[in-house]
Amino acid sequence: MPKEFEILLYYLYVDIQDPESFASSQRRLCEENEIMGRIIISHEGINGTVSGKKEATAEYKKQTLEDLGTDRMQFKVDLSDGHAFKKLSVKVRPEIVSLHLDSQSDINPNNQTGERLAPEEFLSEMENGDVIVFDGRNKYESDLGKFKGAVCPPVNNFREFPEWIRENFSHAKGKRVLTYCTGGIRCEKLSGFLLDEGFKSVAQLDGGIINYSKNSNTKGKNFDGECYVFDQRVGVKVNSNNPKVISKCIHCDQPSQRYRNCAWKPCNDQIFICDSCEEEFGKFCGEECRGSCTKLSP
Ligand SMILES: [Zn+2]
Ligand SMILES: [Zn+2]
């Protein structure tokens, strides 16, 4: 059976005069076309990931570009057997990704952002240049997969980057820094922030890991593990060139990319657990959660 659904990932920094009414028209457009997913609208732009039948996503793409009055926005497209989301959420927020800088030091990526590198350029610099590769995502994302040798800050939220960088990464100001994230949006602000902080040479992977994985020249080379995505797939394959699994089963320590949530609901921690260990021990992050859960259900 041919795959009849598409999963879209997209963003654009663009002035939106009336975010509330733009959000209403997005909501209507999605409902009319049975599109599900998450969309964030702000004065500074739009950031979304949605799924729907091919005819529906085609209509969604066309109408959204028309409403924005631009064709600058690129949609990254994956095929799928069904929806990747269970519901639709369209929200208005102050930022399309929250770095929470105060208004004076906030970054407008249309004015200040790092140089954009195509996948081939990123790979070439990574392999031949004197560079630091910097992961602009959270720890639970880089735990599932990351570029070889990348600096992966132990942050749980994008807002924690400014402080972490000031305290732990200032020594790299004289070096060339290459940033990357899932689809490119976080690097737009992150690379601008690094420049603002006095980093001399900052570049970003254009279109992020997703674009890099689809490029026929790079084929995801030097990305270990899978790319964390914010839909029901959790992880997607990146590297068809020199792949390697980096995550390990929490019980047996064998390589495993099975990402699951701890079955003890108050915990709900994301863990790697292999098939056979889940069967044997249950889907828990440890003894404590298994104990709490069995106490409740005799
Ligand atoms: Zn195991
Ligand atoms: Zn747990």
Put the structure in a nutshell.
This protein is an alpha/beta fold and 298 residues long. It has helices spanning 19-32, 54-68, 119-128, 139-142, 161-168, 185-196, 208-214, 275-281, 287-296; strands at 5-13, 36-42, 45-53, 76-80, 88-92, 115-117, 131-135, 145-147, 176-180, 201-205, 223-225, 227-228, 235-236, 259-261, 270-272. The chain has three domains: 5-92, Alpha-Beta Plaits, CATH 3.30.70; 115-237, Oxidized Rhodanese, domain 1 (3-Layer(aba) Sandwich), CATH 3.40.250; 259-296, no CATH class.
Description:
- The chain is of the alpha/beta class and 298 residues long.
- The protein has 3 domains: 5-92, Alpha-Beta Plaits (2-Layer Sandwich); 115-237, Oxidized Rhodanese, domain 1 (3-Layer(aba) Sandwich); 259-296, no CATH class.
- The protein contains 9 helices and 15 strands.
- The protein has helices at 19-32, 54-68, 119-128, 139-142, 161-168, 185-196, 208-214, 275-281, 287-296, and strands at 5-13, 36-42, 45-53, 76-80, 88-92, 115-117, 131-135, 145-147, 176-180, 201-205, 223-225, 227-228, 235-236, 259-261, 270-272.
- Strands 4-1-3-2-5 form a 5-stranded mixed sheet.
- Strand 2 and strand 3 (45-53) form a beta hairpin.
- It is globular, with a radius of gyration of 20 Å.
- The mean pLDDT is 94.
- Bound molecules: zinc ion (2 copies).
- Residues 262, 264, 267, 269, 284-285, 289 line the site of one zinc ion.
- The site of one zinc ion has 7 residues, from helix 8.
